[in-house]
Protein backbone atom coordinates (compact mmCIF):
# COMPACT_ATOMS: atom_id res chain seq x y z
CA UNK A 1 0.00 0.00 0.00
CA UNK A 2 1.38 3.36 -0.99
CA UNK A 3 1.87 6.16 1.48
CA UNK A 4 -0.25 9.31 1.37
CA UNK A 5 0.68 11.84 -1.24
CA UNK A 6 1.11 14.58 1.41
CA UNK A 7 4.19 16.71 1.94
CA UNK A 8 5.43 17.23 5.49
CA UNK A 9 4.73 20.78 6.72
CA UNK A 10 6.51 22.08 9.78
CA UNK A 11 4.66 24.66 11.87
CA UNK A 12 4.40 26.21 15.32
CA UNK A 13 1.35 25.73 17.51
CA UNK A 14 0.58 27.26 20.90
CA UNK A 15 -1.60 25.81 23.64
CA UNK A 16 -2.80 26.53 27.16
CA UNK A 17 -1.01 24.82 29.99
CA UNK A 18 -3.21 22.66 32.24
CA UNK A 19 -5.86 22.26 29.53
CA UNK A 20 -6.58 19.90 26.63
CA UNK A 21 -4.71 20.67 23.41
CA UNK A 22 -5.62 19.17 20.03
CA UNK A 23 -3.00 18.59 17.32
CA UNK A 24 -4.23 17.83 13.80
CA UNK A 25 -2.34 15.44 11.58
CA UNK A 26 -2.20 17.78 8.64
CA UNK A 27 -4.71 16.84 5.92
CA UNK A 28 -4.89 13.21 6.93
CA UNK A 29 -8.02 11.55 5.43
CA UNK A 30 -10.74 10.60 7.88
CA UNK A 31 -10.39 7.20 9.56
CA UNK A 32 -6.88 6.72 8.28
CA UNK A 33 -4.78 5.24 11.11
CA UNK A 34 -1.77 7.33 12.08
CA UNK A 35 0.99 7.07 14.63
CA UNK A 36 2.21 10.08 16.66
CA UNK A 37 5.71 10.67 17.98
CA UNK A 38 7.04 13.31 20.38
CA UNK A 39 10.67 14.26 19.87
CA UNK A 40 11.13 11.11 17.72
CA UNK A 41 9.80 8.87 20.48
CA UNK A 42 6.55 6.92 20.59
CA UNK A 43 6.27 7.70 24.31
CA UNK A 44 3.55 10.35 24.57
CA UNK A 45 2.05 12.22 27.53
CA UNK A 46 -1.52 11.51 28.61
CA UNK A 47 -3.54 11.60 25.38
CA UNK A 48 -6.23 10.33 23.05
CA UNK A 49 -6.18 9.84 19.26
CA UNK A 50 -9.41 10.62 17.40
CA UNK A 51 -10.84 8.76 14.42
CA UNK A 52 -9.47 11.36 12.01
CA UNK A 53 -5.96 11.03 13.42
CA UNK A 54 -5.92 14.14 15.63
CA UNK A 55 -3.97 13.91 18.87
CA UNK A 56 -5.64 15.28 22.02
CA UNK A 57 -3.20 16.00 24.83
CA UNK A 58 -5.03 15.93 28.17
CA UNK A 59 -4.38 18.46 30.97
CA UNK A 60 -1.03 19.44 29.54
CA UNK A 61 2.05 20.34 31.51
CA UNK A 62 5.50 21.44 30.36
CA UNK A 63 6.53 17.88 29.54
CA UNK A 64 4.06 17.95 26.64
CA UNK A 65 6.05 20.61 24.79
CA UNK A 66 8.23 19.60 21.89
CA UNK A 67 8.30 18.47 18.28
CA UNK A 68 5.35 16.29 17.23
CA UNK A 69 5.15 14.22 14.06
CA UNK A 70 2.44 11.93 12.72
CA UNK A 71 3.03 9.00 10.33
CA UNK A 72 0.70 6.95 8.17
CA UNK A 73 0.42 3.17 8.39
CA UNK A 74 3.29 2.85 5.92
CA UNK A 75 5.59 4.81 8.24
CA UNK A 76 5.67 7.89 6.01
CA UNK A 77 5.72 11.32 7.63
CA UNK A 78 2.41 13.11 7.13
CA UNK A 79 2.80 16.23 9.26
CA UNK A 80 5.08 17.75 11.88
CA UNK A 81 4.81 20.71 14.22
CA UNK A 82 6.35 22.24 17.31
CA UNK A 83 4.14 22.77 20.36
CA UNK A 84 4.72 25.53 22.90
CA UNK A 85 2.60 25.82 26.02
CA UNK A 86 1.86 28.76 28.26
CA UNK A 87 -0.78 31.18 29.46
CA UNK A 88 -2.43 34.29 28.02
CA UNK A 89 -1.24 37.62 29.50
CA UNK A 90 -2.55 38.79 32.86
CA UNK A 91 -2.50 42.20 34.57
CA UNK A 92 0.89 43.90 34.68
CA UNK A 93 2.52 45.42 37.74
CA UNK A 94 3.53 48.91 36.55
CA UNK A 95 5.77 51.41 38.31
CA UNK A 96 6.88 54.82 37.06
CA UNK A 97 9.83 56.98 38.01
CA UNK A 98 9.93 60.73 37.39
CA UNK A 99 13.57 61.92 37.70
CA UNK A 100 12.90 65.34 36.13
CA UNK A 101 10.18 67.50 34.62
CA UNK A 102 11.00 66.26 31.13
CA UNK A 103 11.05 62.48 31.49
CA UNK A 104 8.86 59.74 32.90
CA UNK A 105 10.36 56.25 32.99
CA UNK A 106 7.87 53.41 33.44
CA UNK A 107 8.57 49.70 33.79
CA UNK A 108 6.44 46.66 34.39
CA UNK A 109 6.52 43.01 35.39
CA UNK A 110 4.15 40.14 34.66
CA UNK A 111 1.88 39.14 37.51
CA UNK A 112 2.65 35.53 36.52
CA UNK A 113 5.02 33.91 34.03
CA UNK A 114 3.21 33.21 30.75
CA UNK A 115 6.13 31.09 29.47
CA UNK A 116 5.59 32.65 26.02
CA UNK A 117 7.23 35.50 24.10
CA UNK A 118 5.25 38.72 24.25
CA UNK A 119 4.99 42.09 22.57
CA UNK A 120 4.10 45.35 24.31
CA UNK A 121 2.53 48.62 23.26
CA UNK A 122 2.02 51.64 25.49
CA UNK A 123 0.21 54.96 25.27
CA UNK A 124 0.07 57.87 27.62
CA UNK A 125 -2.16 60.88 27.92
CA UNK A 126 -4.26 63.30 29.86
CA UNK A 127 -7.63 64.77 29.13
CA UNK A 128 -8.31 64.64 25.37
CA UNK A 129 -4.64 63.88 24.60
CA UNK A 130 -2.67 60.72 23.95
CA UNK A 131 1.00 60.17 23.18
CA UNK A 132 3.12 57.16 22.44
CA UNK A 133 5.25 55.82 25.23
CA UNK A 134 8.40 54.54 23.48
CA UNK A 135 8.69 50.86 24.41
CA UNK A 136 11.77 48.71 24.94
CA UNK A 137 10.13 45.28 25.00
CA UNK A 138 13.28 43.41 26.01
CA UNK A 139 13.64 45.52 29.15
CA UNK A 140 9.88 45.91 29.71
CA UNK A 141 9.87 49.67 30.04
CA UNK A 142 8.81 52.77 28.16
CA UNK A 143 9.95 56.39 28.20
CA UNK A 144 7.72 59.45 28.07
CA UNK A 145 9.25 62.72 26.89
CA UNK A 146 7.82 66.12 27.86
CA UNK A 147 4.90 64.65 29.81
CA UNK A 148 3.09 67.90 30.66
CA UNK A 149 3.20 68.59 34.39
CA UNK A 150 0.40 71.15 34.17
CA UNK A 151 -2.13 68.32 34.05
CA UNK A 152 -3.05 66.90 37.44
CA UNK A 153 -3.50 63.28 36.35
CA UNK A 154 -2.31 61.20 33.42
CA UNK A 155 -3.31 57.75 32.21
CA UNK A 156 -0.80 55.10 31.10
CA UNK A 157 -2.02 52.09 29.13
CA UNK A 158 0.27 49.11 28.56
CA UNK A 159 -0.92 46.18 26.43
CA UNK A 160 0.80 42.80 26.48
CA UNK A 161 0.11 40.41 23.60
CA UNK A 162 1.20 36.83 23.09
CA UNK A 163 0.00 33.94 20.95
CA UNK A 164 -2.83 33.15 23.36
CA UNK A 165 -4.33 36.61 23.86
CA UNK A 166 -3.79 40.15 25.06
CA UNK A 167 -4.32 42.18 28.22
CA UNK A 168 -4.31 45.96 28.77
CA UNK A 169 -3.34 47.38 32.15
CA UNK A 170 -4.26 50.98 33.00
CA UNK A 171 -2.67 53.11 35.74
CA UNK A 172 -3.36 56.71 36.76
CA UNK A 173 -0.28 58.85 37.41
CA UNK A 174 0.11 62.03 39.44
CA UNK A 175 3.45 63.29 38.21
CA UNK A 176 3.83 66.07 40.78
CA UNK A 177 3.73 63.41 43.52
CA UNK A 178 5.99 60.96 41.69
CA UNK A 179 8.66 63.58 40.94
CA UNK A 180 11.84 62.33 42.62
CA UNK A 181 15.23 63.62 41.44
CA UNK A 182 18.20 61.35 41.12
CA UNK A 183 20.78 61.79 43.92
CA UNK A 184 23.31 64.63 43.68
CA UNK A 185 26.54 63.70 41.93
CA UNK A 186 30.26 64.32 42.41
CA UNK A 187 29.88 64.76 46.17
CA UNK A 188 33.11 65.82 47.88
CA UNK A 189 33.94 66.58 51.51
CA UNK A 190 37.22 68.28 52.38
CA UNK A 191 38.92 69.69 55.44
CA UNK A 192 39.11 73.49 55.77
CA UNK A 193 42.67 74.52 56.50
CA UNK A 194 43.02 76.17 59.87
CA UNK A 195 39.63 75.05 61.18
CA UNK A 196 39.59 71.79 63.18
CA UNK A 197 35.77 71.52 63.32
CA UNK A 198 34.89 72.34 59.72
CA UNK A 199 34.32 70.39 56.52
CA UNK A 200 33.57 71.88 53.12
CA UNK A 201 31.00 69.79 51.21
CA UNK A 202 30.23 70.30 47.51
CA UNK A 203 28.24 68.46 44.84
CA UNK A 204 26.70 68.85 41.42
CA UNK A 205 23.12 68.61 40.22
CA UNK A 206 22.10 65.13 39.04
CA UNK A 207 22.82 64.83 35.32
CA UNK A 208 19.17 63.95 34.65
CA UNK A 209 18.17 67.38 35.99
CA UNK A 210 20.64 69.56 34.10
CA UNK A 211 18.07 70.80 31.58
CA UNK A 212 15.82 71.88 34.47
CA UNK A 213 18.34 73.77 36.61
CA UNK A 214 17.14 77.29 35.78
CA UNK A 215 13.39 76.71 35.53
CA UNK A 216 13.19 74.16 38.34
CA UNK A 217 15.82 74.71 41.05
CA UNK A 218 16.61 72.04 43.60
CA UNK A 219 17.01 72.26 47.33
CA UNK A 220 19.45 69.99 49.16
CA UNK A 221 19.85 68.27 52.49
CA UNK A 222 23.24 67.24 53.84
CA UNK A 223 23.60 64.75 56.65
CA UNK A 224 26.83 63.89 58.43
CA UNK A 225 28.08 62.01 61.47
CA UNK A 226 31.33 60.82 62.99
CA UNK A 227 32.10 57.40 61.62
CA UNK A 228 30.54 54.78 63.90
CA UNK A 229 27.90 57.06 65.42
CA UNK A 230 24.17 56.34 65.06
CA UNK A 231 23.21 60.02 65.10
CA UNK A 232 23.09 62.29 62.08
CA UNK A 233 23.37 66.06 61.98
CA UNK A 234 21.64 67.82 59.08
CA UNK A 235 22.07 70.94 56.98
CA UNK A 236 19.79 72.37 54.30
CA UNK A 237 20.99 74.46 51.38
CA UNK A 238 19.72 75.90 48.11
CA UNK A 239 23.30 76.07 46.85
CA UNK A 240 25.58 73.25 45.72
CA UNK A 241 27.95 73.57 48.66
CA UNK A 242 27.89 74.01 52.43
CA UNK A 243 30.38 74.37 55.25
CA UNK A 244 29.90 72.08 58.22
CA UNK A 245 31.01 74.12 61.24
CA UNK A 246 30.45 71.64 64.06
CA UNK A 247 32.35 68.53 62.98
CA UNK A 248 34.00 66.60 65.78
CA UNK A 249 37.69 67.44 65.78
CA UNK A 250 39.97 64.53 64.99
CA UNK A 251 37.30 62.15 63.69
CA UNK A 252 36.48 60.89 60.22
CA UNK A 253 32.94 61.88 59.21
CA UNK A 254 30.49 60.22 56.85
CA UNK A 255 28.68 62.71 54.58
CA UNK A 256 25.70 62.18 52.25
CA UNK A 257 23.49 64.54 50.21
CA UNK A 258 19.94 64.31 48.83
CA UNK A 259 17.88 66.62 46.60
CA UNK A 260 14.29 67.72 46.07
CA UNK A 261 12.39 70.05 43.75
CA UNK A 262 12.50 73.41 45.49
CA UNK A 263 9.05 74.58 44.35
CA UNK A 264 6.93 71.43 44.24
CA UNK A 265 5.93 70.70 47.83
CA UNK A 266 4.43 67.32 46.85
CA UNK A 267 7.63 66.00 45.27
CA UNK A 268 9.86 63.41 46.92
CA UNK A 269 13.39 63.62 48.23
CA UNK A 270 15.93 61.75 46.16
CA UNK A 271 17.81 58.78 47.52
CA UNK A 272 20.92 59.70 49.46
CA UNK A 273 24.13 59.96 47.51
CA UNK A 274 26.83 57.38 48.07
CA UNK A 275 28.68 58.22 51.31
CA UNK A 276 31.96 60.12 51.24
CA UNK A 277 34.39 60.41 54.14
CA UNK A 278 36.53 63.27 55.38
CA UNK A 279 38.30 64.38 58.55
CA UNK A 280 38.61 67.99 59.71
CA UNK A 281 41.97 69.76 59.57
CA UNK A 282 44.43 68.68 62.26
CA UNK A 283 47.43 70.75 61.40
CA UNK A 284 50.35 70.50 59.03
CA UNK A 285 50.54 66.70 59.09
CA UNK A 286 46.83 65.91 58.91
CA UNK A 287 45.78 62.44 57.92
CA UNK A 288 42.75 60.23 58.54
CA UNK A 289 42.93 59.10 62.16
CA UNK A 290 42.11 55.43 61.98
CA UNK A 291 43.19 54.79 65.58
CA UNK A 292 40.57 57.02 67.17
CA UNK A 293 38.00 55.19 69.26
CA UNK A 294 34.80 54.74 67.28
CA UNK A 295 31.63 55.77 69.10
CA UNK A 296 29.67 52.83 70.51
CA UNK A 297 26.32 52.32 68.81
CA UNK A 298 23.71 54.78 70.06
CA UNK A 299 26.18 57.33 71.45
CA UNK A 300 26.95 60.81 70.18
CA UNK A 301 29.00 63.59 71.84
CA UNK A 302 26.53 65.91 73.54
CA UNK A 303 28.57 69.05 72.99
CA UNK A 304 28.13 69.19 69.22
CA UNK A 305 25.21 71.20 67.86
CA UNK A 306 24.37 70.68 64.17
CA UNK A 307 23.69 73.73 62.09
CA UNK A 308 21.10 74.34 59.39
CA UNK A 309 21.79 76.81 56.61
CA UNK A 310 19.58 77.95 53.75
CA UNK A 311 21.51 80.90 52.40
CA UNK A 312 23.09 80.69 48.95
CA UNK A 313 26.78 81.39 48.86
CA UNK A 314 29.27 80.53 46.17
CA UNK A 315 32.13 81.47 48.50
CA UNK A 316 31.26 80.15 51.97
CA UNK A 317 32.65 82.54 54.62
CA UNK A 318 35.33 81.23 56.90
CA UNK A 319 35.95 84.48 58.77
CA UNK A 320 34.65 85.69 62.14
CA UNK A 321 35.68 82.54 63.98
CA UNK A 322 38.86 81.47 65.73
CA UNK A 323 40.70 78.36 64.65
CA UNK A 324 39.74 76.46 67.80
CA UNK A 325 36.02 77.26 67.79
CA UNK A 326 34.35 73.86 68.03
CA UNK A 327 30.95 74.96 69.36
CA UNK A 328 29.51 77.08 66.51
CA UNK A 329 25.70 77.20 66.68
CA UNK A 330 23.54 78.08 63.67
CA UNK A 331 20.21 79.82 63.68
CA UNK A 332 18.39 76.46 63.74
CA UNK A 333 19.48 72.87 64.22
CA UNK A 334 18.42 69.29 63.75
CA UNK A 335 19.60 65.93 64.95
CA UNK A 336 18.40 62.52 63.88
CA UNK A 337 19.24 58.91 64.51
CA UNK A 338 19.01 56.03 62.09
UniProtKB/TrEMBL annotation:
The keyword Signal applies. GO terms for molecular function: cytokine receptor activity. The keyword Signal applies. Residues 306-338 are annotated as: Disordered. One of its GO terms (cellular component) is membrane. Residues 183-281 form the Fibronectin type-III domain. Keywords: Glycoprotein, Immunoglobulin domain, Repeat, Signal. Belongs to the type I cytokine receptor family. Type 3 subfamily. PANTHER family: INTERLEUKIN-27 SUBUNIT BETA. This is Fibronectin type-III domain-containing protein.
